[in-house]
Write a structure and sequence with these properties.
215 residues, alpha/beta, Rossmann fold, two-stranded antiparallel sheet, 7 helices
Length: 215
């Protein structure tokens, strides 16, 4: 029986290379116009987030994500619907931006807690886990959060020690064994891109589905 759509899920720690993988897949599959659904846009409002013992908001918990809303939208994409969703603004309270996600036969979805969401895991056809040396992840997180989210380095390092690392070990890394493909990122972007082509596009489920779309 021919599948109606293909869902590829990409999980890994903060700064591990998920975005690079997604960008490369979007480029390589551009003829099929894949849809992209990012878990980052499903964080709950800041008033709903839990705080640690220091009074700092902890975004690095599965409860920080509105998993029900995410799964509802992923299911809508799977059923051939398009989406119009609000982009989550980290640390920017007075800005609203929306994203249109057209329906597609190929759906890419990514996020640090993606594999921790049971309902999503049931919908994902090919699961990709990307891992990177933790020291490199920290440096990448600092660069990203200073540049894109307006955080200062001291708060980023606090989050890393008290939030990010504990969450990675407890909620993210434990799901690596459930992945169909584990990609090790050695820090060289070109190497990671090569592995996308070698291990993801050549995966039997992916290659067979893409071939069927070309028939």
């Amino acid at each position: 029986m021919k599948k109606d759509c293909l869902i590829i899920g990409i999980c890994g720690g903060s700064g591990s290379g998920k975005t690079t993988i997604v960008e490369e897949l979007m480029h390589l599959m551009r003829d099929h116009k894949p849809a992209l659904l990012c878990l980052d846009n499903y964080y709950r409002d800041i008033e709903e987030q839990e705080k640690d013992e220091h009074g700092q908001i902890n975004f690095d918990l599965p409860s920080a994500i509105d998993a029900d809303r995410f799964c509802r939208d992923l299911r809508r994409l799977k059923n051939g619907e398009s989406l119009h969703i609000k982009k989550y603004q980290f640390n920017i309270r007075d800005k609203e931006e929306y994203i249109d996600i057209p329906a597609s036969k190929i759906i890419l979805t990514e996020g640090i807690f993606l594999f921790n969401i049971h309902e999503a895991m049931e919908m994902i056809d090919v699961k990709i886990f990307v891992e990177l040396d933790l020291d490199v992840q920290l440096e990448r997180r600092i660069q990203r959060d200073v540049r894109e989210r307006g955080y200062d380095e001291a708060s980023i390092r606090h989050q890393w020690e008290y939030h990010v690392l504990p969450a990675y070990k407890k909620y993210i890394e434990i799901h690596k064994h459930e992945a169909d493909v584990v990609l090790h990122n050695d820090g060289d972007k070109s190497h990671l891109i090569e592995r996308v082509d070698k291990y993801i596009l050549s995966h039997p489920v992916v290659s067979k589905f893409c071939y069927s779309l070309s028939e």
